[in-house]
Design brief:
- The protein is of the alpha/beta class.
- It has a single domain, classed as P-loop containing nucleotide triphosphate hydrolases (Rossmann fold).
- Helix 11 links the parallel strand 7 and strand 8.
- The protein is globular, with a radius of gyration of 18 Å.
- The C terminus is likely disordered.
């Protein structure tokens, strides 16, 4: 049995009684400290005249817990340990300490086959965990243009961001990044919706933005929160600029063929499978999130 098949076999294990992280509640939006919307400059206008990089998002962690997007305090220690296990190989690959050399390994795509897998929960908690590292910083990019949940959750839904950068080459990348009150963690919002999001994400401008993000801070890890792979073409465009992929799979919910179909779009990427809501995980595991494996993708039939 291959390492992928072993990981996928865990999907068939039974559901767990607690549902933390399964679904984000929009009730938390109003509880989060809002960010004043920035004015997007017209073509040709320099970013210095329109943007202030001093703004900061105050993250309402109690609100995130109430929505099931952060663990309850009594489980913080246990969950923190599991995210240490998840992040360690990702960081090793990004810093060149992994077993193989990966191109663009500092860019990590947070993916799922379908909605409801727990991808947003994983992206937020992995971002928090990585931000605790002493030698790296974390940029959480809301690249889920159809449904920019993270921008809404963090109060930045009206702020310009990634899509604005892709539509206006006069904008400076660093000017769009919002600091947070969590040390080491910053946010690039989704930005203004565009019907051409797929084409924008697949453009040379997108590659230039990713390159600029790396050049702006050599310590920076970029987490791209993406739409579901099997429902959108935007996610496949994001995979092309990512060096690593974290594929979140919900136990007893997503069938094996669906996962294999999603993996077929990730050919050539280093993929970590994170099994979510697994009741039969090892005693030290938290809801199966610690079940992380590196895997080669299988060809699409």
């Amino acid at each position: 049995m291959s390492i992928i098949e072993k990981a996928l076999a865990k999907i068939r294990e039974g559901p767990r009684s607690d549902s933390i992280g399964a679904n984000a509640s929009e009730a938390v939006f109003g509880a989060l400290s809002p960010v004043d919307a920035q004015r997007v400059p017209q073509s040709g206008q320099t970013h210095q005249a329109a943007f202030s990089t001093a703004r900061r998002i105050v993250i309402n962690q109690d609100g995130l817990r109430a929505a099931g997007l952060l663990p309850p305090p009594h489980q913080d220690r246990e969950i923190s340990e599991q995210y240490r296990q998840i992040k360690r190989p990702l960081i090793a690959n990004a810093t060149g300490r992994g077993t193989t050399t990966l191109s663009n390994a500092h860019v990590i795509m947070m993916a799922s086959a379908l909605p409801g897998e727990g991808k947003t929960f994983t992206a937020i908690n992995l971002g928090f965990s990585m931000a605790r590292e002493k030698d790296i910083s974390v940029l959480l990019v809301d690249a889920d243009s159809p449904k920019p949940h993270i921008s809404k959750l963090l109060g930045a839904a009206e702020s310009p961001g990634l899509l604005d950068l892709l539509q206006n080459e006069h904008l400076d990348v660093e000017s769009m990044i919002l600091r947070t009150d969590v040390p080491g963690l910053s946010l690039l919002p989704s930005g203004k919706h565009s019907e051409q999001a797929t084409e924008l994400l697949a453009s040379e401008r997108m590659r230039a933005v990713i390159t600029r993000l790396a050049q702006g801070d050599a310590r920076r890890m970029v987490l791209l929160d993406s739409p579901p792979l099997l429902l959108t073409t935007e996610a496949r465009a994001l995979a092309a600029v990512s060096g690593q992929v974290v594929l979140v799979v919900r136990a007893a919910h997503t069938n094996q063929q669906t996962v294999l179909d999603a993996l077929s779009y990730l050919e050539g990427r280093s993929v970590a499978l994170v099994l979510n809501q697994n009741t039969s995980a090892a005693p030290t595991a938290y809801y199966g999130y610690a079940e992380t494996v590196s895997a080669k993708t299988k060809p699409r039939n």
